Give the backbone structure.
Amino acid sequence: MYSRAFKTTTLAFLFCLGAASGEEIKVMTSGAFTAAYRELIPQFERATANKVVTSYGASMGNAPDSIPMRLERGEAADIVILARPALDELVNQGKVLSGSRVDLVRSSIGMAVRAGARKPDISTVEALKHTLLEAKSIAVSDSASGVYLSTDLFPRLGIAGKSKRIASEPVGAVVARGDAEIGFQQISELLPVPGIDYVGPLPPEVQKVTVFSAGVATGSRAPDAARALIQFLASPSAIPTIVKSGLEPVTAHGPTGNSTLTIPPVKASIKLDQQAIDITLWGSASPTPSAAFALALTIDLGDFQEHLTPVLSAQLNRTDHCGDRLVVERAAITPSAPGSLLTANVNFERFGCVKAFGKQISKRLVGGHAVIEVNLMPEVEGNDISITAEVRKIDADGSLGEVLRSDSVGDSIRDKIAESVESAIRKLTDLKSTLPAAMGKAVTIQSVQFADGGAGRLYLTIAADVRLPADQLLRAVGQ
């Protein structure tokens, strides 16, 4: 739903900026914005021919690689991206140009545990306090979120002195190694870390939302190019990437008035024929003139793509001593919005049996390798997603090709592929189990389509309505 429109908008936006091309822009950015930043910068570079050189560090603290310490040492920079209070302090110190600040995103704090570990309850303040008291070790960052937790929230909850501040390393990496039982950091900094499971955000009553902002460094050698990059990062073109990374664009503050509520990424692992498939869902909810909110949801099905062969094999493979034998050797699915194209490399054999001398003799009648291409189109059926399949092409030589094209076998394989993919998609996109309970029960799907998430990664985008009062929707998203 986002991909085509925003790719076009991005190019048009950058063209309109009219920034000088071929310049080098030096950026210092803090961790909270890193995941979105790394995906957005190549778009900017391709469109402007500018080169962006990036260094990373915390918004505050005395670690040698923190942004304030880098600037104190005189390291060159054109742009700094960090927590707004820290940026304002740099303005006061004369290290960032006054009036250049642009607020980019709102970032919330979340908790993670080591992958596979039990996920403690932190949905209420009392549950959070219990989890903190029970934890053997707690890691927090050495930046904005860690300062708030260790000097404000934890002492209020009676947990003073139990946490360890982590400098120059993601908190998630410490948790993944087992050096801390639980870890807290900006959600966008936890989500990309392998080896951990994201548990959820802090309860709304104690959540600390930090605004991350960008500013032009004093003494920048490319101030116009720097301002153009900041404009791009704050533009509507960047919103889908920002939302996907677990951040909220500053333009979206909640389900009131005409503003939009961001649904942060929700990760889930779903079993398909004993194969665990990981998905990530994110999106937004916008008010409408009616009582409903309009949902724009995106589901990342990249892991389903990677495991398509075993999933299809479990459904399609068959062996009949006196009939047809089918083996799926390799399968791939690529987005072709609004549908997708599934390509299956199969080995097909047909055997016939006769009785002779009291024995049943099996004889191979036809067989060989074939490539079957099937167009898949998602549709809404009731409040479920269905898949319509149409054979696009069958590549097979000689008599095998004739059997697959003219026999019911080709239709049977097509139908089996459609049934298998439909069953998988329904399980992977079951909003009642993926979204918070109150929200999932109130969703009505309006339209659905496949989309290219970049480099051929399969996304499914869903337009839906959710009928909930604004306060209930806000609480549901906070879960």
Remarks:
- The CA atoms of residues 179 and 230 lie 37 Å apart.
- The first strand starts at residue 24 and ends at 29.
- Residues 1-19, 252-258 have pLDDT under 50 and may be disordered.
- The radius of gyration is 27 Å.
